[in-house]
């Protein structure tokens, strides 16, 4: 379509300014028929793309791309990133991290996931979660004493190697407590 539009533009310019088009054609390094028209279509494509990007919401475009062609892993990551859902990452070492995805990795290319942790711990011999670190109270204490204005200033992000992750799932503390009532 773009090439067709450039051919129409060329025909219009030849009809209105034939001498100018001939002069510009002689300035081109390659004297092949329609070389200028095809070169113009390439230039117009780049300019039109940059112009169109000014009006496109990048986050919506990324979310739509992941929802239409992403795998299950990428869909979970995007849900955490866009909708602030907690995810539980169980590592092959038995350690687990519960947190929010900090940034979306490039699909099929990035082998690391960056998260902001909320909890961490390990799985015991019965594969039950044993919580060892509660990050949220530490974050709150920094904010309460005025050391930081928000959690982004704390630099507590963790980078997890994707091939060391055994499983990823949504995590809801209320649901976890219902499945695992406190033993008396």
UniProtKB/TrEMBL annotation:
The UniProt record lists the keyword Transmembrane: yes
Annotated transmembrane regions: 34-56
Keywords: Membrane, Transmembrane, Transmembrane helix
The keyword Membrane belongs to this UniProt entry's keyword annotation: yes
Protein name: Uncharacterized protein
The organism's taxonomic lineage, starting at the top: Bacteria, Pseudomonadati, Bacteroidota, Sphingobacteriia, Sphingobacteriales
């Amino acid at each position: 379509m773009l090439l067709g539009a450039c051919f129409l533009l060329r025909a219009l310019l030849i009809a209105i300014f034939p001498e100018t088009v001939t002069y510009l054609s002689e300035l081109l390094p390659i004297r092949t028929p329609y070389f200028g028209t095809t070169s113009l279509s390439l230039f117009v494509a780049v300019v039109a793309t940059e112009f169109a990007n000014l009006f496109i919401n990048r986050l919506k475009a990324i979310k739509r791309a992941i929802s239409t062609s992403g795998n299950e892993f990428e869909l979970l990551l995007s849900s955490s990133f866009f909708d602030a859902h907690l995810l539980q990452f169980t590592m092959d070492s038995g350690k687990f991290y519960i947190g929010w995805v900090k940034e979306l990795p490039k699909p099929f290319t990035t082998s690391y996931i960056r998260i902001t942790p909320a909890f961490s711990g390990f799985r015991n011999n019965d594969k039950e979660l044993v919580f060892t670190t509660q990050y949220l109270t530490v974050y709150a204490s920094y904010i309460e004493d005025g050391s930081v204005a928000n959690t982004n200033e704390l630099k507590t992000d963790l980078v997890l190697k994707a091939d060391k992750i055994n499983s990823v799932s949504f995590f809801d503390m209320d649901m976890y407590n219902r499945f695992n009532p406190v033993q008396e």
